[in-house]
Design goal:
By secondary structure, this protein is an all-alpha fold. It has two domains: 273 residues, no CATH class; 254 residues, no CATH class. It has 21 helices and four strands. The strands form two sheets. It has a two-stranded antiparallel sheet with strand order 1-2. Helix 7 packs antiparallel against helix 11 and helix 18 runs antiparallel to helix 19.
Length: 539
């Protein structure tokens, strides 16, 4: 038992700051969301109008929760719960992989396995550590709801539901770490599972059955295939159903137990899904350091580009539905304008989707720069830099490939938007909005690229948590700031919120030149500082 507590304490010491940032950030989002909802939708009529628009428009339900009435608490959970749960999910998967497959890659797991702790105790300690992290996150979410005066049972259930979804994905992360040979592969499996189930829950809600008064929605069977759907169907502050949260806990425990069993029967460093064997000889395309960076990151670029393609298709194929809904119901039209911004409804829909696209492109760039940090921490960058490849050239290659990745993601979305228009026999004039907003998001995503590069140069050990945290903060400000009536000064801190927009026959460049300037200065600074930085091992 003392060995278990020693391992648990070691994990807490390594992660306390990251866990605090994830949990406190989630709690603050819950608190700020209620304040924004109370200001923007303070009357029952306002909330009823928005729920009517949501039930009539699948675009809103793809990115929101499950409508459960017009009460303040239920309405706020509808708007924000999926995003609280996705933060818990990402925190849990990264934690699980870091302390399992990540420790095997760094050699820590082998040293611990040589002690009386053996092989099973570390993964058990990781599972308990992840459970405690989610308890802290859930407690802060519940505390945020209680602090604004909502009822105790609904507040507690909302916190438990968010934590329970996180526990499911803790199990997913532990399971993925047993299947895949590398932490990069395990993280990819876990992250794509999070994203796929998030979308499945959104679609399951969108095709559900609305109530006669258009204030509630009964999920379709598809939502029950997703842990996010289970969490949303607790209906906190309305029916207060506890059993879907217990379902999440049960599935999380089963996944964690399966991962522990698999860890006990495989070789240390082995996996159940073998890596694909490489060629005996390198191809001509792998003739330089930039080609090597592309080879290491092309899978990630392809995955984010597929996400961009789907985002583009949805942005224009659903725009016509929004237009029809707005034309049939003036109240719905007004509330959709509040959500999407100025301009026509189809232009607002494209702008909303392409704001999310900016987040996807930023994620692609951050992941590529984080790969440079992983290569450094694992010691594989050192042999490369021992060749006639300077540190500045090495980092510059990652920056160039990341910029190419951003362009690929945006280009895939623009192509998808064209497919959506063609499939719906829509208005091709909408492509002007698509191209303008897409090009603007290239500039926004490039800011995240250079900021993460600066973190890599200045504080290498914080590259990964800092890079992803900045993307999450910008997503919250850019996507939720206008809806929750955040001050413009705060919203405009997010690069994705100040990109060019079509304004009638003209184009409002907004913060484009500041984004370009920040990108140029950040890239130059990171390359200049890299000249004097030494390689840093994992910490």
């Amino acid at each position: 038992m003392s060995r278990f507590f020693a391992l648990l304490g070691q994990r807490v010491r390594r992660d306390w700051l990251q866990i605090l940032l994830w949990a406190a950030g989630t709690g603050l989002l819950a608190y700020a969301s209620y304040v924004g909802v109370a200001d923007a939708y303070g009357t029952e009529q306002d909330r009823t109008s928005l729920l009517a628009a949501a039930l009539a428009n699948p675009v809103i339900l793809l990115f929101r929760g499950l409508p459960s009435g017009v009460g303040e608490g239920a309405f706020m959970v509808f708007l924000i719960f999926p995003w609280l749960a996705i933060l818990a999910a990402f925190m849990s998967t990264f934690l699980a992989v870091r302390h399992t497959r990540g420790d095997e890659e760094s050699g820590r797991a082998e040293l611990i396995a040589a002690t009386p702790a053996a092989r099973s105790l570390p993964i058990v300690a990781t599972a308990v550590h992840g459970l405690l992290a989610n308890v802290v996150l859930g407690a802060l979410v519940a505390g945020a709801f209680l602090a604004v005066g909502l009822d105790a049972e609904g507040s507690l259930l909302a916190g438990v539901a968010a934590a329970a979804v996180g526990i499911v994905f803790l199990g997913v992360g532990l399971f993925a770490a047993q299947l895949m040979r590398t932490s990069r592969g395990a993280n990819s499996v876990a992250v794509w599972t999070v994203m796929a189930t998030f979308v499945i829950a959104g679609i399951g809600n969108a095709i559900g059955t609305p109530s006669d008064d258009l204030t509630r929605m009964r999920s379709s069977w598809l939502a029950w295939l997703s842990p996010f759907g289970w969490g949303e169907n607790t209906r906190a502050f309305d029916e207060n159903l506890w059993w879907p949260a217990l379902l999440c806990l049960g599935v999380g425990v089963v996944l964690a137990a399966t991962a522990i069993a698999l860890a006990s029967v495989r070789d240390l460093g082995g996996s159940f899904i073998a890596e694909r064997l490489g060629r005996a000889e390198a191809s001509a395309a792998l003739s330089g350091p930039m080609a090597l960076v592309w080879r290491l990151t092309r899978g990630a670029v392809l995955g984010w580009a597929v996400g961009g393609l789907l985002t583009g298709v949805l942005s224009t194929s659903l725009a016509s539905i929004v237009q029809e809904v707005g034309a049939a119901n003036p109240a719905v039209e007004e509330i959709l304008r509040q959500i999407s911004g100025e301009g026509s409804l189809d232009q607002g829909t494209v702008t909303t989707f392409f704001t999310m696209l900016g987040v996807l492109a930023a994620c692609c760039a951050v992941q590529i720069v984080c790969r440079a940090r992983q290569e450094e921490a694992h010691g594989t960058a050192e042999p490369l830099l021992a060749a006639p490849v300077g540190r500045v050239r090495w980092l510059a290659d990652y920056l160039v490939v990341a910029l190419i990745g951003i362009v690929f993601v945006i280009a895939a979305a623009i192509g998808g938007a064209a497919l959506g228009i063609a499939g719906q026999d829509g208005d091709w004039e909408l492509m002007r909005t698509v191209v303008v907003t897409g090009a603007g998001q290239v500039a926004a995503a490039s800011v995240f690229l250079v900021v993460t590069a600066l973190a890599f140069v200045l504080v290498p050990r914080l590259t990964i948590p800092l890079g992803w945290t900045l993307v999450l903060v910008a997503m919250v400000l850019g996507l939720f700031g206008p809806l929750f009536q955040f001050p413009d000064e705060l919203v405009h801190l997010s690069p994705i919120a100040v990109t060019p927009m079509v304004d009638g026959d003209a184009v409002d460049v907004r913060g484009l030149w500041w984004l370009v300037l920040a990108t140029g200065v950040g890239a130059a600074a990171s390359l200049a500082l890299m000249r004097r930085r030494e390689l840093t091992a994992a910490g």
